[in-house]
User: What shape does this take?
Amino acid sequence: MRLPEYAKKLGVTYRTAWRYWQEGKIPNAYQLPSGTVIVEEEAEVDEVQKPDLGVVIYARVSSPENKNNLEAQADRLKHYCITRGYKIQRIVKEVGSGVNDNRRKLQGLLADGKARHIVVEHKDRLTRFGYCYLETMFHHAGRKIEVVNHAEDDTADLMQDFISSITYFCTRIYGQRRSRRKTEKLIEQLNQ
Assistant: This one.
């Protein structure tokens, strides 16, 4: 079979299967002069030595008042991963709004190439908006985001994020006004 079919059978992206082939991790595979990689049927999926780096658990709450929920969320995810037989690489806990796109720990996690498989309780734990972009980016990089609970999220948490986004935009508007007033004062002083 061709390498794309083998990748589908293995449950990985084509890029990942290509990397496995280049690293010599797929037995009984060869490349035709045309560049096509062929995997002979004897090479079973189980024979591929997948790198087992383990999973990274990401837990987040919106405000410091919810610290207890943060610990409970991390524990639930830990038990989920143990039940699934995952090796836990590390647990990342963060307090910050889901609409904040500058969360330090999440930024570090996304940039860390060793974090190949991230487990979250709800998709909004990563971000309120743009989850599909993250999922697509991970998929094309041979990485995976696993969402444990696809149910709708808590209304109170959603309301907190809504208030945070309004506050964010209000401070930007008032900041621009203040900046304009300072500029006008500076010009006025220069003209004197």
Summary: The first strand starts at residue 29 and ends at 31. The helical segments are 3-10, 14-22, 67-84, 104-111, 131-140, 155-191. The chain has two domains: 3-47, 55-147. Confidence is low (pLDDT under 50) at residues 43-50.
